[in-house]
Amino acid sequence: MSREKWQLCVLLAILLVFVALAPVSQACDFCNVKFMEMQEEKAETSLQAREILDLVRGDNAPYRVTPLTTDNKQPDKADEQEPIEILQPMNDKQNGCTGCDGLPPTSYVPQDVEPDKKFTLTLKEGDVYLGKGVLYSGFTIDDKIPGPTLIVKQNDIVEIEVVNTGKIPHGMSIHAAYTQTSKYVGQIGAGETKSIKFKVTYPGVYMYHCAPGGHAIPMHTLFGQYGMLVVLPDDGYELEKRGEKPDVELYLIQHEMYKTGKDAIMGDPLYVLFNGQLFRYVEDPIKVRPGDNVRIYFLNVGPNIISTLHIVGVVWDHVYWQGHPDNVFVGGQTVLAGPSDSWVIDFRIPEDEGNYLLVTHAFGSATRGAIGAFSASYDHEEVVSVILADGPTYTEEELAEFRELAERIISPYEPTDIDEPFIITPEQQKATVEIIGNSFYPKVLKVPVGTEVEWINEDIFTYAEGEFAGIHDVAATSGPEMFASPLLGHGEKFSYTFTEVGEYEYICIPHPYMKGKVIVYDSDEKSGSQQASFNMWYALPLALAGMIVLPIIIRKFRS
Amino acid sequence: MSREKWQLCVLLAILLVFVALAPVSQACDFCNVKFMEMQEEKAETSLQAREILDLVRGDNAPYRVTPLTTDNKQPDKADEQEPIEILQPMNDKQNGCTGCDGLPPTSYVPQDVEPDKKFTLTLKEGDVYLGKGVLYSGFTIDDKIPGPTLIVKQNDIVEIEVVNTGKIPHGMSIHAAYTQTSKYVGQIGAGETKSIKFKVTYPGVYMYHCAPGGHAIPMHTLFGQYGMLVVLPDDGYELEKRGEKPDVELYLIQHEMYKTGKDAIMGDPLYVLFNGQLFRYVEDPIKVRPGDNVRIYFLNVGPNIISTLHIVGVVWDHVYWQGHPDNVFVGGQTVLAGPSDSWVIDFRIPEDEGNYLLVTHAFGSATRGAIGAFSASYDHEEVVSVILADGPTYTEEELAEFRELAERIISPYEPTDIDEPFIITPEQQKATVEIIGNSFYPKVLKVPVGTEVEWINEDIFTYAEGEFAGIHDVAATSGPEMFASPLLGHGEKFSYTFTEVGEYEYICIPHPYMKGKVIVYDSDEKSGSQQASFNMWYALPLALAGMIVLPIIIRKFRS
Amino acid sequence: MSREKWQLCVLLAILLVFVALAPVSQACDFCNVKFMEMQEEKAETSLQAREILDLVRGDNAPYRVTPLTTDNKQPDKADEQEPIEILQPMNDKQNGCTGCDGLPPTSYVPQDVEPDKKFTLTLKEGDVYLGKGVLYSGFTIDDKIPGPTLIVKQNDIVEIEVVNTGKIPHGMSIHAAYTQTSKYVGQIGAGETKSIKFKVTYPGVYMYHCAPGGHAIPMHTLFGQYGMLVVLPDDGYELEKRGEKPDVELYLIQHEMYKTGKDAIMGDPLYVLFNGQLFRYVEDPIKVRPGDNVRIYFLNVGPNIISTLHIVGVVWDHVYWQGHPDNVFVGGQTVLAGPSDSWVIDFRIPEDEGNYLLVTHAFGSATRGAIGAFSASYDHEEVVSVILADGPTYTEEELAEFRELAERIISPYEPTDIDEPFIITPEQQKATVEIIGNSFYPKVLKVPVGTEVEWINEDIFTYAEGEFAGIHDVAATSGPEMFASPLLGHGEKFSYTFTEVGEYEYICIPHPYMKGKVIVYDSDEKSGSQQASFNMWYALPLALAGMIVLPIIIRKFRS
After folding, report:
1. Cβ neighbours of A282 in B, within 8 Å
2. Sheet of B422-423: strands edge to edge?
3. Between C446 and which of A207, A270, B191, C421 could a Cys-Cys bridge form, CB atoms 3.0 to 4.6 Å apart?
4. Could you tell me if the ipTM is greater than 0.90?
5. pTM for this one?
6. Which residue on chain C is closest to A95 by alpha carbon?
7. C350: chain A residues, CB-CB within 8 Å
8. Using CA atoms, how far apart are residues C42 and C50, in angstroms rounded to an integer?
């Protein structure tokens, strides 16, 4: 395929994304088809191409058997097996299990069973306000980061319905479910709803998060879609065994926020928060009275950095690894939690009034937002006995005001005010943009006219059926000249030399939320003067053409 | 307030810092008052300003009730409650506790009780020598990093007296105390002494560290003020239960040293040390004999990076999570410790002589200094049976020689020889200095004349009563031109365009140890020639004015 | 010694490395001798020099007593002690141990005992293919990364023979050995073979890795030389106690790959892999059947980043810290492992078919390669019951093709195609190259003619007997001009101003695999034109001289 044809193709695809009236129900099928054609063309000389073809089309192709993500609605083979009592412990022979009395069953239940508890989670792209004048543009669950806190009891049958009201595919991974979840709710197209039922047999504090398949599993989590699901144990913890109960229960998530996709991959967050707001419980300390029994259900979402949770003035009475009552420790000043690790923490408020600071003792994270406080006073008549891990929510009016007044807006995948241009001088002649973590890095590049800019795809997880994963391209959406790359696998490059002064905006077609900008300046330092020269010559006629041609293309590739 | 007035104000404040004969007993009250005025002025348009005003002056203002740090000397309400036997387990009703037999009491004791053990810790800013020709300029306890190792027995009543001989506020957080410490020793002004008494009821290996409130809690710890407090269990560990005892006891702290505040926040240390010296126990291996029982009381201070402690040629016999005898594990090649995590480790020296290397298996840290060795020989007649975690100390003469001969001096918050200028070229037109981790980054900037330099405050924890926390400004102290910014909250910016060649030095007034430099060069490459043009025109008359005016201002704001 | 003499000396040394017919059997003895002379010359003014001399020559010199690495072949003193029953628990008196019944003996056995199992490991420098078009040039064991998986039973006497077929010293640290290993296999010269015997008394999952002494211990591990040794417990785990056994056993290593030595020290890997290949078990999912008992022997090699291993759709039944059956936990969604931490993980495949994704929940690492999958189907007639942690191996033909077709070649210590030149502009006047992690950073520097380039040694662990550790120098091997530095200790610098346009290649003589490049361009932008001007004037005559002179020098310094 010639470069001209490809460019036309790309333009149509751009229009597909921007003009299309309906949201994208699957991750760019057009891109998938195109990408596979390209692999065949270069199989002779490319190791990656060969591996991908083997993987998808070879005799031994594993994805043919059981795809990583499947739209599997037909009756399940598990149900066709000889009927098994769902409460019965399961062993490798699936019949009378001797010797495994101590083991609870897995979470498998036939999908037509009646649930004890039902929850609905709504996923989309959106903004949240973090406090301190900071607005975050990322992905949300129920318009929050973290999403809603789900609390169930051991042995409940739980139904979770997942609604995608966004423009791209989302999905769900639920750590409390000891059974297949990917094929039920793993990938949910824009506008679709799916659900899963399972029985929670192991008590504990679990993470759930968006997981639309492949490279997007970590990326959507890094962008903000996660929450906590707690399975309360039948017999409680040591405290309950002593005949007591917690006076205050804090469901606490520590989580990270990134200003670029590269930072997300490298584990360099800009903010680290407790329950969705910078220093939330410093601004609104948790009221307790001396002598109160306090329980923290703690989940470190991460998704990169460890936390060592500590309270100034408190030694733990008992802590429970992953929240299971059998995994008990005595005393201790901290609990160490990697990403998706959890603890149940029990302690008492001492006799002496004052503030008891809550902090991750990984102090780089603490300074970035992960500090809170318990305010202990004999005068607190009423205390809030349950504090959930949900991020704060705001009305549309409040959010509109936040957007207007925000000191800064940050986003991992598109340029905002904080993305200062990365400036290339004439001596450097060449500039490189990494495509990494579903974003461009640097997001804004400023180069002298005549500079060759090279994009290199540093994302690696390049393929999983039905999902576009870490394959990216570069396509201009505005600017004096137009340019577009083919789809790039890991380590593949595309270069373009800018010969006209002006501002160029571009996106990645398979992931149209990924945005970048190149500012080309006159090396005699007249940059800036022509920045507004938005070039519309091709946009209008093609938009018209797109209106007619695209519905046909879409229909073709979706069927 | 006009810019001119503000500049005058700033100059006076500079003089306050440099001219004042007495050290600063509180964190810049003048700055606090000024900052609150500014918040009122911009409350209409700034989200941050509104939040801060709500927090401090609103109806629901939590800090009115129980400030994060308080100079609370009056009798405590805890003592006014119905008298409770301090040894009695405490429950939520504070009376006869049934069912909580297994739980020790918290650490609360009335402050007039007689202690079993008393320690004095002296905090200040100062230098230490790290070995390998490296001098570190930071914050110290008893002139050491780490500070002294404190060893007590379970159920001791401990008094810790904290003396601040520095120029800025310091304070103390003591992890072994299961009771309020912040309000007794949380913030101690320059020249002041405070103390706290508490009963250590949970055995374990604990961290203590400077904690003067708010943003300074993590920062002073990152800058070097920490140590170990061990509470020995009444009945010992498995070894004692077998009727044996350790032949060699090593109290071991792993800790990190940073060359910029930004590195401290990002968790990128320049050095990682065992007990305060680079490769201390390689240079002076710990002598042991085959068959010796060795116990390590291990604390990873961090404050950012995990450690997996390992000894080449040793498998652990027993290790105890956080040093509590009930949290016992068998075998294992490593122990994993996040910041402020601790372990007690018991093992035997095998029959075979030779060196047994001690190392964190996080090998990036090992190469930066965290390697040591046990030297095992049948010929070692005497072995040192107790090795404390205290950093090395030197006489004033030794330190003077180290300062003169040091290959390098490093400091997180002020420029030293290793801070190479960050050079801006004429094409870049603009430069950005981040204010982060109570330091400027880059600390030394070199720009062509006419460049606009923008400072942006990336510190976030902007307020806690009585402490200035992460609010910073920029104020010239020398150079051809003068400039000064208002106080900056998180994400706020200040710009200044340099029009004269020369060297400019500046500080942050609320944290005058924070120092930065801008070198302005002629873009025709004659830079350097005018560097010495220190501009005195404003310093002398203002110094005189300051002598008269400042005492009045200080008195006004301190009262 | 004058600079001219030193340069001649360096040239001879270069020839030593490149011309010598035999590989280097010890780490540059010539360098060691030279370095010690330099320390004496500067002892008056250098703190480092004094410390090193004290360490090696002082009265109290610890290295005289028991060197960190020794070529100890004579009968061991342990054998000369009163004979002890090797199976008998050892205590500090080495006789009848009362009260230590619960403790197994250490691993010490006389070296003339007959082993139950014998393994041979072959170490050298070499390439491996990582998948996705990436070839890695580093250090290997048995031509693999990770090396072979060694499986033994509790109380086996194990012999490990280590063969060095590389060009530099290698060695071995074996974490399962609870006895001296360093002095038997700690340092093995090029072409040499050594061995060690030990008894494995503590069951568990252990790391082994190259450890040639000093700074090289972490560096060779960071470069790829490691593997897993599992000691299976006599009585199995809970599963075996229930009368069952695992249907599928996965030996799983997570490990990191670096593209520069600096990244290795900073803990910023380019790739994170399971068992040596990017997304290995996505491309070839592990086949299981619903109801299967699966056991994972998990080792996080690191050597820097934590892992929280998780399987989508699985809650653990039992996990065992470090693989010891006594350290059992129930339930949980993740296990947290720092570098060299390990777990045994037992779980069941639920009734529902589909893919169960295996992933580290530290999602930055997951996106870089650490994702896999179990494919569960009732139709899988045969499943592979044991999957080892060995990295993949390829024939020489396959590797040759990979080298030709690779999208990218990466290496921590020498420039490859991915090492874009770091460009210095004329305004900057000066450039700095860090020597860190046994590599130059940046590896390729491009400077205008007339620029002063400064090399600074940021490696710290500067000395351990018999090994050159973190001492480096800079010596030109090609280019229009020649330059050479003296040996640099930590923080020491060397500067050279380039006055001729062209390409300069250089190495570090003690570590000749460390390679760097400086490209000098005409600031009027004619760079590139003279790049090929390889300067041979000095190479040929000196090569001839070297042929005659070097054997004499070598003989002198080796004896």
Report:
1. 68, 461, 464
2. B422-423, B444-448, B515-521, B502-507, B475-478
3. C421
4. no
5. 0.89
6. C291
7. 90, 106-108, 178-180
8. 8
